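Materials and Methods. Structural model of Prohibitin family protein. The 276-residue sequence of Prohibitin family protein from Polaribacter pectinis was retrieved and submitted for structure prediction as follows.
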Amino acid sequence: MATRQPEFNFPKGGLFFIILGVAAIILFTKATVTIGPGEGGVIFESLGDGIDTEKTYGEGFHFMMPWNKMIVRKVRQQSISDEMNVLSVNGLEVKVNGTIWYEPEFENLGKLIKTKGQDYERELLDPAINAAARSVVGRYTPEQLYSSKRDVIEQEILEEVQGVLKDQYLSVTRVLVEDVKLPSTIRIAIETKLKQEQESLEYEFRISKAKKEAERQKIDAEGKAIANKILSASLTDKILQEKGIDATLELSKSPNSKVIVIGSGKDGLPIILGNQ
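The predicted structure was written out as tokens:
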């Protein structure tokens, strides 16, 4: 005998509430957005004028009209690195590896995206960096690029980039030139020249040190000569007699001395005989 399955009666109006619930979930998902740390967002009004340039949304949970879209971008300081082929002042091609730190202006994020698009690094930042690097590097020789002018070049590139990006809603805070690659023959020649210059400086330092020591000894000798001259001029016969008497008294006190005074010597000083 077959077992009769229990009947399930779907509640009246249940399908309507299911559809309504699904629609509510979709609506809630479309109408909310969470902006993460270090990010900012601007609303794209699908039924309006596009990007809302008046307000930038910060970190946290936000509501919006479900037919709009929130465009979220990083607004904290970021960096990009690149290698550029540029020409030095004498026309030699060099490769410059550099890093640049930048950040969009938070309050003007909507204006930045509206005027330059979401990919504003490629549209705005890259051309500015390349133009500034070519302009600045083109003022220097390969030797200056390779050795002594690195800090100056970084500052000049930074100033030029900042000038190009003025009023463009994008701030550049620092430029770092990490490496300058020259053709091997040029690099070896520069390194050899720098080594020779260093050796020359060391040689000049040793010569200078020797001259200073000779000058010191000359001054010392002249000082002693002057002192002796002054001393000789101050030693009168009377002072010599007094010093001779003092010396005689000191010798007479010595246990190792045998002193016999007989008459007097020249200048009235006693004659002292010892067992030398």
